TrEMBL record:
Mode of membrane association: Multi-pass membrane protein
Top-level lineage group: Bacteria
Subcellular location: Cell inner membrane; Cell membrane
Gene3D superfamilies, alphabetized: MetI-like (1.10.3720.10)
Protein's name according to its UniProt entry: Molybdenum transport system permease
Species this protein is from: Shewanella benthica KT99
Membrane-spanning parts: 6-32, 44-63, 83-103, 139-157, 189-209
UniProt function note: Part of the binding-protein-dependent transport system for molybdenum; probably responsible for the translocation of the substrate across the membrane.
Family: Belongs to the binding-protein-dependent transport system permease family. CysTW subfamily.
GO CC, alphabetical: plasma membrane
All residue ranges annotated as the ABC transmembrane type-1 domain in the record: 6-210
Residue ranges of coiled coil: none
Upper lineage: Bacteria, Pseudomonadati, Pseudomonadota, Gammaproteobacteria, Alteromonadales
Length: 226
């Protein structure tokens, strides 16, 4: 069992979720409540990581953020290190790949909030920020929870884009998915089986807990307004 790789994957998942979810809440709210020219194209662009192979996304990130590109050289000067083959590069790649998993559930949750509720809150003198925190977020919490779990679980098992962007550096970019691949390549099926079982049990447990919590939140919200 490669505990170092597992810990690195958990760390990557946590950092990605902490950065991505607040951005996803704001972006989802904007997309849910505003109609503008080109909105369908924006939503299509958000969904691209779902249909493109992770290795394709990893390739473009590798080329776009590498030291051979102007953007990569600029970021290296600003940050003092290159993103490619570094943990920070994995964070950037994970955020980009998981944008649809974060935005879609939250956007659908915001779209389900009745316009009358927001209008009533505004008539009571509540500011937009107060409406967001006091009215909307409690209503869309199941969508936020779903997005959080989907992103965390997806990052935990991500392979293609992580391998392309970060390589296979122990303690820096070697995640549990890459460790499983290395174990299989070395015919160490016992270790690969252990790590695969951990990911499988984690996925089942988290999805079950998320479903249960979403149902409880839904029932609590329904009883509160009945």
């Amino acid at each position: 069992m490669d505990w170092q790789a597992l810990w690195l994957s958990i760390k990557l998942s946590c950092v990605t979720v902490i950065i991505l979810i607040p951005f996803a809440i704001l972006a989802s709210r904007f997309l849910a409540y505003h109609h503008f020219i080109g909105k369908s194209w924006v939503e299509a662009l958000i969904m691209v990581p779902l249909v493109l192979p992770p290795t394709v996304i990893g390739y473009y990130l590798l080329v776009g953020l590498g030291s051979q590109s102007w953007l990569g050289r600029f970021l290296e000067q600003v940050l003092g290190q290159q993103l490619v083959f570094h943990f920070s590069g994995l964070v950037v790649a994970s955020i980009i790949v998981n944008i649809p998993f974060a935005i879609q559930p939250i956007q659908r949750a915001f779209e389900s909030v009745p316009q009358e509720v927001r209008d009533a809150a505004a008539c009571c003198g509540m500011s937009p920020l107060k409406i967001l925190f006091k009215i909307e977020l409690p209503l869309v919490w199941p969508g936020v929870l779903t997005a959080l779990v989907l992103c965390f679980s997806h990052v935990l098992g991500e392979f293609g884009v992580v391998l392309m962007m970060g390589g296979n550096i122990a303690g820096e970019t070697k995640t549990v998915a890459i460790s499983i691949y290395d174990s299989v390549q070395a015919f160490d099926f016992a270790s690969a089986g252990q790590m695969s079982l951990v990911l499988l049990l984690f996925a089942i447990t988290v999805l079950a807990l998320t479903t249960s919590m979403s149902r409880r939140l839904g029932r609590a919200h329904g009883s509160r307004h009945s």
